[in-house]
Amino acid sequence: AGVLYVVATPIGNLGDLSPRAVEVLRDVDGIAAEDTRHTAGLLTHAGIRTPLVSLHEHNEERQVPGILSRLQKGEALALVSDAGTPLVSDPGYRLVRAAREAGVRVSPVPGPCAFVAALSASGLPSDRFLFEGFLPARAPARRRRLQALAEETCTLIFYESSHRIAAGLEDMAQVLGGARPAVVARELTKTFEQIQGGTLASLNTWLAEAADHRRGEFVVLVAGAPDAPAQTLDPEAERILALCLREMP
Ligand code: SAM
Questions:
Q1: pTM of this prediction?
Q2: What is the rounded distance in angstroms from the CA atom of residue 168 to the CA atom of residue 220?
Q3: ipTM above 0.95, yes or no
Q4: pLDDT tens sequence across 233-249
Q5: Are 170 and 155 in contact (CB under 8 A)?
Q6: Which of 75, 87, 170, 221 stands 20 to 30 A from 6 (CA)?
């Protein structure tokens, strides 16, 4: 029977391609890749010659039936994206859903994921978190989204690109408050990796300080809102309660 492997690839450092990922990518009949040219580079680096087929955001709907029929004929295929774990702010959801609905086995080959890497090194609470992916590109929609997250008490995690990091962080400071602890993780696993902590206000200053700070790929993590204070009674209710307690046997 066919099988679809969902294979994580490096987010910058080629050394992070796991031995099992290499083995699976080498042994499958074909690889569905977000950008076949980009993945061809990775395969060359690993000495792999498996044929590629394109599967990206704009052709996924059209490509799924063909890939699915190959799986149903018994082929083993792999799904990769340009970086990190497929389906995490990346294409693949439609294919995985279709494969599972058709009873095809889907098996993950886990590995790098930018937000997990960032969270693991951020020092922010990691027991509960909310992964938001990319915020909307346009400012009004972005602010509305942030507004909807303002009361969340778990750690918030966002993806940002170099051309929107400044605007995104500025809106976060405005909507969530400049005092919120936050961490900007850029260029993870690469030469210029930087994990900068502070408050949303101080991180805005840090971004403005040097063009280098705004280059590359970013994960932004923001501490959740403080837990709502425990319900307290108003003073009059406290006084009456105390009187009642005194009268009780
Ligand atoms: N599937 C990927 C994953 O598992 O993380 C994410 C793909 S998404 C299209 C690309 C975004 O991930 C970038 O804009 C950036 O926000 C984040 N990202 C990817 N690689 C990164 C890195 N090396 N350092 C920081 N952020 C990264």
A1: 0.91
A2: 9
A3: yes
A4: 777 878 887 888 888 87
A5: no
A6: 221
